[in-house]
């Protein structure tokens, strides 16, 4: 009605102030254009965010934490079946013997449940002189039963240790694969031909040991202690004084590889030059060793001959020995890292372990060269080891008189080369924590250990498998845990699918190793744990992580702000300014309408 009245009275107009009023409604064209430009920028933000998005393959964080908690809370233990057989014992009760042996084992192990120890079951058999047996079986349905009368006292003669070892292995054949390995100790109460009370204790190269002596039943308490000692200190701990082999000091690379590098060093080729037929020794002596250790490490062998390789230390002439000597105090300076170019393996990656075994041939000025021990005696092997590095043998030519006219060219004889390799195998055993000599001595007596042509006996390989499996699983858990914490702390870290697959397969291999260990699969658990550790290391040291480990929001802002911030700032300011102008003009128009109504 008011608009109609205004039209009917055009002559009547309210007081108009151009500063605070306007008679026309403000247009939306400028505001629409400005806001359209602003919204086009806003619509491009998701595309920009997608273009700078960091790809992160999903990692099983829960499984990684679960593996770490399981390894820490429940140490991995391997099933071990112990079987003690007492032959020629008349009045001894099997149940009593079993109870006493089990108490002795518990005292030696202190009921320790550390990773790599044995979850043992014990069976005791007493075989009387008339071949009648009383037996106490372990509480396990998979324990093999002993066939009474198979072991004869007359079989344990003098000089037949290898035959006895093979016969015992035949007696207990098939028992080791059911649930864990079978370890046996046979105590034979047998009169010696000379009538002496000598007690002979032998540990075979399989998984069997035997004690032979006269009057053992009267001192069966000592026999119980020795049987317990063999089970714990020999079969469980590998004849070491410590309870376990420290995995971090085992010479195996994080990728599960070992490179055995054999080098023949001619100190001064002007005096003489020696070569060797290493391929024949590799096939005859080293191949069985690498095959035996295959579940623990992937071992490759290489050799080389170097010249002009003097040592760093000095030697002195000993008139009494009529030779040059160097002492143990000179060993840290013997290896000449400047002249001995030993690290020549092209096949070994950065995480493989290279063990150097060096045959040093001295020059004519210091030949013969002997190693003098701290007690003044001369070393029988004339060599030494360096932990986690390798070993050195000083080999003196048969004739130290050098030819002044021209250097003689010789080849080390096969007999000398076999002796050198045997010394190297002893050093290799020492690097793995075992003793080089074939004797184990304790407070209860001395045990003869039968050497194996493979360098390691079967029970020593079992010890290595148990300890190395535990170390690999612990290292795998630690590495995956570190990777998990790193990825969680850096949300902009690139995680490729390859890393996710390596983590997944590493967890799968670790679980498989735990399962095989609980079932008594020593070799399979060692192989799976080695694979788990290698995959975890590959994931943690992946090149994509090492090259671009962190791409933060600050970095993203610093890169893209010079391109988009100036334009975006002007667009936002223009939109705000246009919106403010539109509100002001609309307020003027509303003021005009109000004044017009009141007029």
From TrEMBL:
Membrane-spanning intervals of the chain: 31-49
* A GO biological process held by the record: attachment of GPI anchor to protein
Q: Where is this region: Disordered?
A: 1-21
Where would you say this protein principally sits, based on its record? endoplasmic reticulum
Give the pathway listed in the UniProt entry for this protein: Glycolipid biosynthesis; glycosylphosphatidylinositol-anchor biosynthesis
The protein's matches in InterPro entries, at most eight in alphabetical order, are given as: PtdIno-glycan_biosynth_class_S
- Localization in the cell: Endoplasmic reticulum membrane
Q: At the top level of its lineage, which domain of life is listed?
A: Eukaryota
Alphabetized Pfam families for the sequence = PIG-S
* Coiled-coil features, chain-numbered ranges: none
Spell out the GO cellular component terms annotated for this protein, sorted alphabetically and separated by semicolons.
Answer: GPI-anchor transamidase complex
Ordered alphabetically, the record's keywords are: Endoplasmic reticulum, Glycoprotein, GPI-anchor biosynthesis, Membrane, Transmembrane, Transmembrane helix
Kindly give the membrane topology term recorded for this protein.
Answer: Multi-pass membrane protein
Family, as annotated: Belongs to the PIGS family.
Q: This protein is called what?
A: Phosphatidylinositol-glycan biosynthesis class S protein
Q: Which organism is it from?
A: Arabidopsis thaliana x Arabidopsis arenosa
Q: What is the lineage of its organism?
A: Eukaryota, Viridiplantae, Streptophyta, Embryophyta, Tracheophyta
């Amino acid at each position: 009605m008011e608009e109609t009245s205004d039209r009917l009275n055009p002559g009547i107009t309210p007081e108009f102030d151009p500063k605070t009023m306007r008679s026309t409604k403000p247009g939306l064209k400028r505001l629409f254009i400005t806001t359209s430009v602003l919204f086009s920028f806003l619509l491009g933000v998701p595309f920009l965010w997608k273009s700078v998005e960091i790809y992160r393959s999903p990692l099983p964080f829960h499984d990684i934490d679960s593996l770490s908690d399981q390894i820490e809370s429940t140490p991995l233990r391997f099933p071990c079946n112990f079987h003690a057989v007492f032959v020629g014992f008349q009045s001894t009760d099997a149940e009593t013997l079993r109870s006493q042996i089990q108490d002795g084992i518990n005292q030696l192990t202190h009921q320790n449940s550390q990773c790599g120890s044995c979850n043992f079951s014990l069976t005791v058999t007493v075989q009387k002189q008339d071949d009648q047996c009383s037996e106490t079986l372990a509480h396990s349905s998979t324990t093999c039963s002993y066939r009474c009368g198979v072991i004869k006292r007359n079989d344990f003669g003098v000089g037949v240790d290898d035959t006895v070892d093979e016969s015992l292995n035949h007696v207990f054949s098939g028992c080791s694969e059911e649930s864990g390995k079978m370890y046996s100790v046979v105590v034979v109460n047998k009169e010696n031909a000379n009538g002496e009370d000598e007690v002979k204790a032998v540990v075979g190269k399989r998984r069997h040991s035997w004690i032979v002596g006269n009057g053992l039943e009267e001192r069966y308490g000592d026999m119980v202690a020795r049987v317990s000692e063999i089970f714990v200190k020999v079969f469980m701990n590998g004849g070491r004084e410590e309870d376990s082999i420290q995995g971090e000091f085992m010479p195996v690379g994080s990728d599960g590889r070992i490179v055995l590098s054999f080098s023949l060093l001619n100190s001064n080729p002007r005096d003489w030059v020696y070569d060797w037929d290493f391929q024949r020794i590799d096939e005859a002596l080293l191949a069985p060793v690498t095959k035996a250790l295959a579940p623990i490490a992937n071992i490759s062998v290489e050799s080389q001959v170097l010249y002009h390789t003097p040592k760093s230390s000095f030697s002195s002439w000993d008139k009494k020995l009529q030779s040059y000597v160097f002492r143990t105090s000179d060993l840290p300076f013997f290896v000449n890292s400047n002249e001995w170019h030993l690290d020549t393996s092209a096949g070994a990656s950065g995480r493989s372990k290279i063990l150097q075994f060096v045959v040093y041939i001295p020059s004519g000025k210091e030949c013969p060269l002997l190693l003098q021990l701290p007690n003044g005696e001369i070393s029988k092997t004339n060599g030494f080891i360096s932990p986690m590095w390798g070993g050195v043998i000083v080999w003196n030519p048969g004739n130290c008189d050098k030819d002044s006219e021209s250097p003689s060219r010789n080849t080390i004889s096969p007999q000398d080369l076999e002796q050198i390799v045997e010394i190297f195998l002893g050093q290799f055993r020492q690097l793995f924590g075992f003793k080089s000599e074939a004797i184990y001595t304790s407070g209860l007596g001395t045990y003869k250990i039968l050497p194996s042509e493979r360098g390691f006996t079967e029970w020593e390989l079992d010890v290595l498998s148990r300890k190395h499996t535990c170390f690999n699983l612990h290292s795998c858990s630690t590495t995956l845990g570190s990777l998990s914490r790193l990825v969680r702390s850096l949300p902009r870290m690139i995680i490729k699918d390859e890393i996710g697959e390596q983590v997944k397969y590493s967890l799968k291999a670790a679980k498989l190793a735990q399962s095989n260990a609980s079932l008594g699969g020593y070799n399979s658990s060692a192989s799976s744990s080695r694979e788990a550790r290698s995959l975890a290391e590959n994931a943690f040291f992946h090149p994509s992580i090492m090259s671009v480990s962190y791409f933060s929001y600050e970095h993203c802002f610093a890169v893209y702000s010079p391109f988009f911030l100036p334009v975006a700032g002007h667009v936002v300011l223009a939109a705000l300014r246009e919106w403010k102008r539109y509100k002001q003009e609309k307020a003027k128009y509303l003021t005009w309408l109000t004044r017009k109504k009141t007029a």
